[in-house]
Input
Amino acid sequence: MPRGFLPPLVGAVLLSMLTLAIPLAHASTTTEISPANGSTTCPSIGGSWNSINNTCTVSSDVTVGPGDTLQIDAGVILIISPGGFASTGGAGGSNGATPGDGAPGTSGSSALGNSGTINNMGIIQLAGARGGLGGEGQAGGGGEFACPNGSGGGGGGGGAGGNGLFNIGMINNYGQIQAIGGQGGEGGRGGSTQPYYLGGPGGTGGPGGADNSPGSRGQPGSGGEIGGAGGPASAGGAGGPGGDIFLCDSGAGGGGGGGGLDVLNSGTITNLCGGSVRGTVTGAPPVTGACVTTSTTSTSTACVPTTVTVTQTLASTPEFGSGGMTMLSGVSVAFAVLTLAALRRKGGAAAPSP
Output
């Protein structure tokens, strides 16, 4: 074998190892949606463009990944309202001599998830999807003297509502962001049994929570078993327990899923001049930002020219009950007299009129 020559197999192995050792770079992308280019850039995030009112409507979740940038220019309205369910409700439990408990519901996805950078000069409206419904427990048997299929299974827990905005990246907001979490899914009904001993219909599932709110506990089965607990905000409800194995009773209802959060933030959201966020912000750090503007006016009174400088510090509040207007957090007024005309009397004569 010639010196310096590697067999084909060894060369292939070394090439493969070298390839694995070189990390593949993520090509960052920047998507800018403006009134001029919306017809092409809006579909790139899965939306449909309305050129009459410059609105981009998306009916699925949107994710801005690490290193990526989404920019919404002034005059553009971005609406993200996913259809379907944001989560999955838990399956109902099986019947039997040892009936199964319902499964818990899952957590929900977010209408807009950001781990990159969002620059907003327009209006962003976000609505989390509804949580999935819990499954019904399997019905137990019943008879005059026996319970051949055992007690009813517990109802599944409802899924959580989807969050409006989930941010772990950076958002620079000059415009408006309006976000609301989705309704939590209802818990599943417990499995019923025929009326014998303590048989009867299963307990109803608990209602899902509104945005930022927990779901409700499911109702007991016919034997008194406590229903599944409602999930906290943005979490699925617990499944209900199956009926008592000795009493042939029905299963308890599953807990309702918690409502999605309006805004879940562990990144940076900065409201700049004119920026506002409407919706409850959960997490830390909170929304911050201020806009300092200075205006100068000149007046002249009684021969005294005066310059007045007014400095206003405008800060946007992260939560609004309605309207989403920016709040005036502080106004400092500084009066600076630049020049004063010396008024002197000479020989008892009056000073000249201005």
